[in-house]
Amino acid sequence: MPSTLLDLRSQLLFYKKYHHEQVNVAIHSVFVPTILFSSASMLHRVVLYKDYTLTSLLTTCYASFYLLLNLPVGLLATGLLILMNVAIDSHWVPLTFNQELILFTIGWVCQFIGHGVFEKRRPALLDNLVQSLVLAPYFILFELLFRLGFMPGLKQQLEADVRDS
Q1: Would 33 be classed as within a structural domain?
Q2: Could you report the per-residue pLDDT of 80-91, keeping only the tens digit for each?
Q3: Confidence band for 113, pLDDT divided at 50, 70 and 90
Q4: Does residue 2 lie within any of the structural domains?
Q5: β-bridge mates for residue 102, sequence order
Q6: How far apart are alpha carbons 82 and 123 in whole angstroms?
Q7: What is the pLDDT of residue 2?
């Protein structure tokens, strides 16, 4: 199945091929949000214009892409991204830059361990950095929705696509 930019199934399949082993998926389920939050917190310090930060810009880009891929899940993801921005802006989780950097580093180390020890496959970011970084949070959200019983047909299609590839 050829990958197209706005085809949800091909986008999720790209990431699923690198994240099929359940322990690795569990590691990513914890540390992708950790990396997202810590990096967004660090990038929030970069003000582009007035109160508009680099995190605001990236959130807008991520949300737009997620909405184009799948409107209902994109709306959920957008809401979560907005909530993250509000939490960072309101200092609900008051972290220093060094604490954010430590969380960011721990997140990446754990993910690489997940790939090396459990998945036994190099990370997707080595094949497509931008696609991996943008898709990772969305993929984790879909994994949660699949576990909750949503979109069983899509989950089955992705599992079959991984087996067939």
Answers
A1: yes
A2: 999 999 999 999
A3: very high
A4: no
A5: none
A6: 28
A7: 47
Query: What is the average pLDDT across 104-127?
Result: 93
Q: How many domains is the chain partitioned into structurally? A: 1
Q: Which of 161, 137, 2, 4 is nearest to 73 (CA)?
A: 137
Computed over every residue of the chain, the mean pLDDT equals 94
Domain-located, residue 127? yes
Side-chain half-sphere of 44: how many Cα atoms within 13 Å?
23
- Residues contacting residue 55 through CB under 8 Å, at least 6 positions apart: 40, 41, 43, 44, 46, 85, 88
- Token code pair at residue 16: 């699923």
* pLDDT tens track for 131-161: 889 999 999 999 999 999 999 999 999 999 9
Query: Where would I find the H helices in 44-151?
Result: 54-69, 71-89, 97-113, 129-147
Is 3 domain-assigned?
Answer: no
d(CA 2, CA 11): 10
**Among 70, 62, 57, 71, which Cα is nearest to 12's?**
70
Please provide residue 44's backbone torsions phi and psi, each rounded to the nearest 5 degrees: -65, -20
Domain residue limits at 125: 8-164
For the stretch 57-86, pLDDT in tens is: 999 999 999 999 999 999 999 999 999 999
Contacts 24+ apart (CB under 8 A), 72-81: 73/138, 73/141, 73/142, 73/145, 76/141, 77/137, 77/138, 77/141, 80/141
